[in-house]
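Quick one, T. Sequence first:
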Amino acid sequence: MTNFTQKLAVSLFSLTCTVAVAGDLRIETRVYAHDEELPVCESVTLFTGDTVYDFREDRSVVTIFRSAAAGKPARFVLVDSDRSVRTEIELRRVDQAMASLRKWAASSKDPYLRFAGDPVFAETFDEQTGELTLAGDQLTYRLVTVPMEDDQQRLAVRQFLDSFTKLQTLLETSLPPDPRLRVNEALFRRGLMPVETKLYSRDEEDPSLRAEHLAAPLLSKRDRARIDAALDSLSICREVSNEEFHLGGARTASK
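Structure tokens:
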């Protein structure tokens, strides 16, 4: 699988708040290419209180999302324990970057980019099987879902997913995030949580990517230990600019 496809996988499937979660929540996600048995990406996302922690299994960077509080705006904190550095990215900066990206996509001659910037899907839902389909002329999503009963928790998940999808776009893919945002909106509107997500490119019979999502309404001892370790790293890591953090991480990944 190419590096570009791996980045696209993160953008399309990462589980991806400005309100507190009613109780803890754990979401484990594995992303597969259609012809590979091993996942190309694995992550664990932990919701507790008004903070969300996202751990990628293939890297040392932990992404922490904190809602607006005490005069501080909603923001992401990225912590790289291997390099002992951290940086903050305000959510409003991410939103501004997405607006510019959509304008760029709208002016592109590439039909895929134009679609990604302003996707149109035909949406269908089978209540018997829980299958949600969003079909577009460039991409189609097919999701197996289960009901998510807690309204407050569902709102927290939706808001984090949207924000995190935009962040991954900013840091990794440079492709408009709107296809995934449309999926998030459909799930939220129908009160659903995905169990499996399949992505089909235009005219493909087999999915190009498949994601499995496992959610649990509690955190394990290991989960809490990972959170504690992330907070310990946060307290001792040196704060750097967004540019230094990103460029340093890119150099490390290329070695």
